[in-house]
Amino acid sequence: MIDLFLKMPKKIEIREVVPREGFQSEKNIISTEKKIKIINMIMKTGIKYIQICSLVHPKIVPQQADCEEVFFGINRPKDVTLSVLVPNVRGAERAKKVKADDWNFMLSVSDSHSMANSNIPTFEAMNRMKTMLEIAHSEGVHVNGGMGVALGCPFEGRIPISRLYEVIERYLSMGINCIGVADTAGVANPKQVYYTMRQLIKKYPEVNFKLHIHNTYGLGFANVLAGIQAGVKSFDSSIGGLGGCPFAPGASGNIATEDFVHMLNLMNVETGINVKKVLEISKVLEKIFKHPCDSVLSKLGIKENLYELASAKKATIPRKIKNKKGEKI
Questions:
Q1: Cα 168 from chain centroid?
Q2: Would you say 14 and 272 are in contact if contact means Cβ atoms under 8 Å apart?
Q3: Residue 38, CB half-sphere, CA atoms under 13 Å: how many?
Q4: Contacts of range 279-286, beta carbons closer than 8 Å, 24 or more positions apart
Q5: What pLDDT score does 301 carry?
């Protein structure tokens, strides 16, 4: 039997996306002041990468209309990378003003999802990225290439690996070698994630691949573990499991940061993140949005050693079991 856990890395990078994906998925718009408070709290957890907002048109995503105000209001420690999602040239011009450390280009690998999301086919969208990339280079900013619905499209189903190769080749031709692979609708399974990422890493060893996993069908952490076994060492997650996909009705959000950190802690994989501080933020978000967060820890709390809990319960269970004769045993 092959011991898969021999492949576990010593450290995993967790990139927090709740200020962008989590907040924009909520019906109620959170105030700028509360956003600033939450982001400042996140920066004290040990998380070193935070996606602050999406620079889309305010009429399309009103929850993200105050991106500039948020950037100018938060504390900006030197050891935390603050990123933005840049969908177009207008977004790139706004990104210049807020002095974001890192830009994420938005892209769907299927034409159907790209048309629904951005009203433009995939490769035409990539052609427009060249102007955005010129602006990024003029600012000396690092750029990440996105690959939305790469592990399954709500319109086209399973995406052929050849399509992913085409998108990656185009990114590489633009000099982008940090690429996020997203299960946007949360439809992937562990076997699929493992073999897809193994093929991508083997074919493109020069690329720094990152995984963005949703937990729509409860397979989020199984898919994460499959990605780790395949060699991925960087993942997006969202505090409280907030987020979602508008084209997957009933879909839950991203994998929850607190659950992810807790799982890695139990396996002695380093993240540098204080899970208790993350859980505190999750509780604050529940009060702000007036609904429970979609994470296990927000419901059960933290237990450093799960077996201690089991032992404690065993010690308090009264012996009321009887045999067939009705005698207590």
A1: 20
A2: no
A3: 31
A4: 280/41, 281/38, 281/41, 281/42, 281/45, 281/239, 281/240, 282/239, 282/240, 282/256, 282/258, 284/38, 284/41, 285/18, 285/22, 285/38, 285/239, 285/240, 285/242, 286/240
A5: 86
- Of the candidates 159, 166, 119, the residue with the CA atom closest to the CA atom of residue 145: 166
pTM metric for this prediction: 0.90
- 53, 67, 153, 245: the active-site residue: 245
Q: What is the pLDDT of residues 131-174, one digit of tens each?
A: 999 999 999 999 999 999 999 999 999 999 999 999 999 999 99
| Gyration radius from the chain CA atoms | 21
26 CB neighbour count, 10 Å cutoff: 18
Q: Tokens standing for 235?
A: 């993942």
Instruction: Say how far apart CA 191 and CA 156 lie, in whole Å.
Output: 20
Q: How many CB atoms lie within 10 A of CB 118?
A: 20
153: annotated active-site residue: no
Helix locations, 63-189, DSSP H: 67-73, 89-98, 111-118, 122-139, 161-173
Domains of the chain: 8-303 (3.20.20.70)
254 and 16 Cβ atoms separated by less than 8 Å: no
Tokens of 47: 């998380």
